[in-house]
Amino acid sequence: MPPRFAPRDLRASDGDRERVVALLGDALSDGRLSHEEYSERMPLALTARTLGDLAGLTADLTAPEHQPVQLDDGRPVTALFGPAERRGRWVVPGAMTCVASGGEVVLDMREALLQEHHVVLTVYAFFGRVRLIVPAGVEVVMNGTDILGRQRGGTSRRVPTSSDVPVIEVRGYLVASEVLARTPPRPRRFLPPWRRTP
Q1: pLDDT tens profile 138-186
Q2: What value does the mean pLDDT take over residues 44-64?
Q3: Structure pTM?
Q4: Which residues contact 132 (CB under 8 A, 6 or more apart)?
Q5: How many CA atoms lie within 13 A of 166 on its CB side?
Q6: Nearest Cα to 53, choosing from 31, 34, 28, 71?
Q7: Cα 92 to chain center, whole Å?
Q8: Terminus-to-terminus CA distance in the chain, angstroms?
């Protein structure tokens, strides 16, 4: 069994480095970084090998939810009478927990990095809502227990046996709450006028 790396030890991609470089440029232009600080951090961003190397370069420049690379090491996402979200480039651990009590959790996984092909999302919701936005090609299996609640948008009734298909499996308990999964809409194809049927 291959070793499982902590999120901060995962290899950074060119896209990850470009996101950090863009934030450093913005910070220089609005005065959050001096020219000296920018000159120190820029080469480190361009040569960073891991996500942790990149995260350290921008930690003092913007709020955690706006970081170009988000590393929270699997802490629960909690919405208590307000919103909570994960968007952009973030690491989805193999098992994670969401708590929504009188609030809404949004997990946007379109740019996220899945650590494992089978992710177990445990939801505890009480008069709350959890919204999942997943890229095309990811199966969503709804296995939660709901009381006066609903689970919508699942793409499969059971976990696929093929290990090649990424799966988000929703478990947990919902009381007067909702879990909603959706994939981005496919672009519409417009036929030329001469190919349209009358």
Answers
A1: 889 999 898 999 999 988 878 877 768 889 999 999 999 999 999 766 5
A2: 91
A3: 0.76
A4: 107, 109, 121, 140, 153, 168, 170, 179, 180, 181, 182
A5: 16
A6: 71
A7: 6
A8: 59
